[in-house]
Amino acid sequence: MTKTITLAHGNGGEENNELISKIFYKHFKNDILNKSEDAAILELNGKTAMSTDSFTVSPLFFNGGDIGKLAVCGTCNDLAMMGAKPKYLTCSVIIEEGFSTRELEKIVRSMKKELDINGAMVVSGDTKVVPRGAVDKLFINTTGIGEVEYEGISASNLKEGMSVLVNRDIGAHGATIFSAREGIELESNLETDCASLYPQVKVLIESGIEIVALRDATRGGVSAVLNEWAKASAVCVEIEEEKIPVQESVRGICEMLGFEAVDLANEGTFVLVVPKSDEEKALEVLRKTHESAELIGTVSMQYEGKVILNSSWGTKRFLDLPTGELLPRIC
Ligand code: MG
């Protein structure tokens, strides 16, 4: 292979085949993909979940991850959040002419590593190469299909008295991308929370906890998830502000930018609602993966469709949906 990707690598001919076989097939190889038919033929049992996402993150490599890891985690996590086990993915890439072949392979390798964690495989894909300047380095789209293992998770199921938990400290992805982009050198080793969530969901399901609602707090952060749920279920979500876990370095970035950690994007952080009777068990299960998991609030009927932040001094304020674009190209 040449050191950089050329327009010829997207020509549908010999160089295109070389790119596909020496990078994508080399790492993604499996019986379905290897057939190289026009479409993958899949076998699925029972109910199926499907989700798609495009990844345009800048920079492509950041502390704790890269666009490849993000592209698999993002799609697999959306399946996991609906109680589904990720099974099959597509991978479509749009590459800018001149992109480093070595970096492309590094990205594909991270995708493969994350696919293995999910027990999923890429069964179909597409590569396009566009002239310099037509795209910024590399964009990836993944679509995933999963088998539903736990039914009934929904944003509309929240009821008064239920408990709200987070699986770990929040805002790490947004803060990491911001510092990478601005070249902020941090003394701490702040890194993205980007991670595959299916293993944690699997443990939750196996523990017998009733999962009422579950959502990964990606763009819009924890704040968007809570507001969407409050509206969809016509309830009030009351959060104890000081219970929200935020690591010091993320807090520092937030102060510098005038952001709130609840608005920052995450890529391996979810919010969970369980019946009050399951809250202790759920917290115990979550803490097996992240010490920082926390019970952050409850569902009430105080203000329908609203999220309230209660401070430790007894003051209350509404937590609204983030507006504007905090950080473009975060994922
Ligand atoms: Mg999601």
From TrEMBL:
<feature type="domain" description="PurM-like C-terminal">
    <location>
        <begin position="159"/>
        <end position="308"/>
    </location>
</feature>
<dbReference type="InterPro" id="IPR036921">
    <property type="entry name" value="PurM-like_N_sf"/>
</dbReference>
<dbReference type="InterPro" id="IPR016188">
    <property type="entry name" value="PurM-like_N"/>
</dbReference>
<protein>
    <submittedName>
        <fullName>[NiFe] hydrogenase metallocenter assembly protein HypE</fullName>
    </submittedName>
</protein>
<dbReference type="InterPro" id="IPR011854">
    <property type="entry name" value="HypE"/>
</dbReference>
<dbReference type="Pfam" id="PF02769">
    <property type="entry name" value="AIRS_C"/>
</dbReference>
<dbReference type="Pfam" id="PF00586">
    <property type="entry name" value="AIRS"/>
</dbReference>
<dbReference type="GO" id="GO:0051604">
    <property type="term" value="P:protein maturation"/>
</dbReference>
<dbReference type="InterPro" id="IPR010918">
    <property type="entry name" value="PurM-like_C_dom"/>
</dbReference>
<comment type="similarity">
    <text>Belongs to the HypE family.</text>
</comment>
<dbReference type="InterPro" id="IPR036676">
    <property type="entry name" value="PurM-like_C_sf"/>
</dbReference>
<feature type="domain" description="PurM-like N-terminal">
    <location>
        <begin position="37"/>
        <end position="148"/>
    </location>
</feature>
